[in-house]
């Protein structure tokens, strides 16, 4: 039976990953150890509801309050739980890295190094290490001539966050070389859907929330995208399924993979959101793009053939379907008085 140790497990991606782990691999899992500074299960309740209490009582879910910057506490938690699988999601997001770069290095680089070093000391055999990388490892879209961007393209991160994700991938490769543990880095781009409420590319989700909240209140809430151009979108449940799948499915070696998604113009995403909302009877819609919006900083047109070949069957939800699911969830949250922008 597997014991999954997840840093950043109470965040958006972690919550979705845990939902997918329990849904698709629950019979193979003894426990999921959720490591975070806060231990707040709010986002997990989006997917698990009131079953969280039962899962905690049974020991299937275990919360551990540890800052990944604290190497001693991190090593102590690992030694206590002796996990078989590691999923490293804990990190500062792009805006926080820009505003407090020293803290960004501490968490995103040193914290990652601390985790790799502590895992190497474990007595139990670790079967898999999964690192949450990012499409921010690539350069701007104008750098690349091809129609799609495979994982082999030149890495030229445009900000601190991307630089530190490149560092994380190199640390992952070194860790695999030293330990022999199968290691996967997943490069994700703009994730949208329930629970995505932080980071610059949370804007598409805020647009959907604006529709749901405005329609519930009977007064449109204007939302303008802060950037323009084309964007590579992933539905949040798909992202969680990718992390769960690459953690549990057979794999050997060390590789970085783009997550499955689709690239469309920002304006088309807003059009889809408006159309689907109207079909659902949500008519308070006021979406657009800021007049002085800067171009989208991050890459798009990511090739996902490699991850599909290595881990067949991982989902790729059509944007129209992901938007519908998101709006329906936000509609319920608004009715319950739980939706905030």
Written description of the protein model:
The protein has 341 residues and is α/β, with parallel strands linked by helices. It folds into two domains: 2-189 and 236-260, NAD(P)-binding Rossmann-like Domain (Rossmann fold); 192-232 and 263-295 and 318-336, Alpha-Beta Complex (UDP-galactose 4-epimerase, domain 1). 44% of the residues lie in helices and 20% in strands. Helix 7 links the parallel strand 5 (128-134) and strand 6 (183-188). Helix 8 (203-217) crosses helix 12 (319-335). The protein starts with a strand and ends in a 6-residue tail after the last helix. The model has no long low-confidence stretch (mean pLDDT 95).
Compile the SSE list and pairings.
Blueprint: E1 2-7, H1 12-25, E2 29-36, H2 42-48, H3 51-58, E3 61-65, H4 71-81, E4 85-88, H5 94-99, H6 101-120, E5 128-134, H7 160-179, E6 183-188, E7 190-192, H8 203-217, E8 223-228, E9 230-235, H9 236-248, E10 254-258, E11 262-265, H10 266-279, E12 287-295, H11 305-310, H12 319-335
Parallel strand pairs: 1-2, 1-4, 2-3, 4-5, 5-6, 6-10, 7-9, 8-12
Antiparallel strand pairs: 9-11
Helix pairs in contact: 1-2, 1-9, 4-6, 6-7, 8-10, 8-12, 10-12
């Amino acid at each position: 039976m597997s014991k999954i140790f997840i840093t950043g497990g109470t965040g958006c991606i972690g919550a979705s990953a845990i939902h997918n782990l329990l849904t698709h691999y629950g019979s193979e899992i003894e426990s999921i150890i959720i490591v975070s500074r806060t231990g707040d299960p709010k986002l997990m309740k989006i997917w698990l509801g009131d079953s969280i209490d039962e899962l905690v009582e049974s020991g299937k879910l275990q919360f551990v309050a540890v800052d990944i910057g604290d190497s001693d506490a991190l090593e102590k938690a690992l030694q206590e739980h002796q996990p078989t699988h590691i999923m490293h999601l804990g990190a500062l997001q792009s805006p926080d890295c820009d505003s407090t770069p020293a803290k960004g290095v501490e968490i995103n680089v040193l914290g990652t190094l601390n985790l790799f070093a502590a895992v190497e000391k474990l007595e139990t055999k670790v079967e898999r290490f999964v690192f949450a990388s990012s499409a921010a490892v690539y350069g701007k879209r104008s750098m690349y001539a091809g129609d799609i961007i495979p994982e082999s393209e030149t890495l030229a991160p445009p900000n601190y966050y991307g630089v530190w994700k490149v560092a994380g991938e190199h640390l992952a490769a070194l860790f695999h070389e030293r330990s022999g543990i199968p290691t996967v880095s997943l490069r994700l781009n703009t994730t949208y859907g329930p629970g995505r409420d932080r980071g610059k590319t949370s804007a598409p989700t805020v647009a959907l929330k604006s529709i749901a909240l405005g329609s519930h209140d009977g007064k449109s809430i204007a939302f303008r995208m802060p950037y323009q151009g084309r964007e590579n979108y992933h539905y949040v449940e798909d992202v969680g399924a990718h992390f769960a799948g690459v953690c549990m499915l057979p794999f050997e070696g060390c590789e970085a993979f783009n997550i499955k998604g689709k690239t469309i113009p920002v304006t088309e995403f807003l059009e889809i959101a408006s159309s689907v909302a109207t079909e659902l009877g949500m008519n308070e819609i006021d979406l657009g793009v800021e007049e002085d919006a800067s171009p989208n900083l991050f890459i798009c047109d990511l090739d996902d053939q490699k991850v599909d070949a290595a881990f067949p069957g991982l989902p790729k939800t059509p944007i129209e379907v992901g938007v519908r699911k998101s709006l329906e969830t936000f509609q319920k949250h608004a009715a319950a008085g739980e939706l905030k922008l």
